[in-house]
TrEMBL record:
Residues 24-35 have a biased composition (Basic and acidic residues). One of its GO terms (cellular component) is nucleolus. This is Brix domain-containing protein. PANTHER family: RIBOSOME PRODUCTION FACTOR 1, U3 SMALL NUCLEOLAR RIBONUCLEOPROTEIN PROTEIN IMP4. Residues 1-23 have a biased composition (Basic residues).
Length: 297
């Protein structure tokens, strides 16, 4: 008798499952016919916790937007956006003994960023390099850090008065590793796209990244550089594009590609002892780990 009941129970379960599948199938069919996308699936992005520092027009207060606009008009990058100087970049490594992949990555980075000079690091301290770079008219210093024979960090110093941003560098792939033709990378100045930087800190970081590229792109080269922020990871991509028709556009990735994660933003130039930090990952780590849906950029 017990076996008969078990069989009947299993049949009831299978029947309910079958009915649910049929109902979902019919619902999908109705949505497809009516063009209704239905309920939007929950993701970390659309469930993001609202921050007081978000500056999107639909969420930010007008007073705060006006305050940020005043800050932008007088910050360290205002002269760049007013086209008062042309960016000149000094690219170097953390030590003189760098491995093959880091060296290749630096060479490719110098081809992507216009007006970049690679400085072969010796035993010079970074604090001594900075004043010489200022005297030579450099607007920024980019330092590539290396660990385990591969690049793992990027330090960006804006001259002459800062700020200094320290990024963790990951998922580095050179053009050769992507099996792309490096000859497609021309000397034309690329366009720059900054996507999804919504907070005050995000705006500062985005303006800092933009300022190492020339403000006047050469559209003839059809090159575009993208910094896309998603969950506080900044994805770098480098493409060439061409128009197939009046409405259709094709993309081809050129490389290199990498991912940045902000570790600190320091006021002024590089100073590990007496530097005044505007934001550090160390201080915010517990808060970030406590709420995974709250992002800083």
């Amino acid at each position: 008798m017990t076996g008969v009941k078990a069989i009947k129970r299993r049949r009831d379960v299978h029947k309910k499952v079958s009915e649910k599948k049929k109902a979902r199938s019919e619902a999908r069919k109705i949505r497809k016919e009516t063009g209704d996308p239905g309920q939007t699936p929950k993701t970390i992005e659309n469930q993001r916790k609202k921050s007081e520092t978000i500056l999107e027009p639909e969420t930010a207060e007008q007073d705060r937007i006006e305050e940020v606009e005043r800050d932008i008009a007088t910050d360290e990058f205002s002269s760049y956006f007013n086209k008062e100087y042309e960016p000149k970049i000094l690219l170097t490594s953390c030590t003189k003994d760098i491995k093959k992949k880091t060296r290749k990555f630096m060479i490719e980075l110098s081809r992507v960023i216009p007006n970049t000079t690679i400085y072969k690091r010796r035993d010079d301290k970074l604090k001594k390099i900075i004043p010489h770079a200022i005297d030579d008219g450099y607007s920024d210093i980019v330092v590539i850090n290396e660990n385990s024979q591969k690049p793992n960090g990027l330090l960006l110093i804006h001259l002459p008065d800062g700020p200094t941003a320290n990024f963790r560098l990951s998922n580095v792939r050179t053009t050769k590793e992507m099996r792309k033709d490096h000859k497609l990378i021309t000397e034309h100045r690329p366009e720059v796209i900054l996507n999804n930087f919504t907070t005050r800190l995000g705006h500062s970081v985005a303006r800092m990244l933009a300022s190492i590229f020339h403000y006047d792109p050469e559209f003839k080269g059809r090159r575009v550089v993208t910094f896309h922020n998603q969950r506080d990871f900044i994805f770098f991509r480098h493409h060439i594009y061409w128009f197939k028709s009046g409405e259709r556009c094709a993309l081809r990735e050129l490389g290199p590609r990498f991912t940045l994660k902000l570790q600190s933003l320091q006021m002024g130039t590089f100073d590990t002892k007496f530097g005044d930090y505007e934001w550090t990952m160390v201080e915010k780590r517990k808060e970030i780990e406590k709420n995974r849906r709250q992002f800083v950029l």
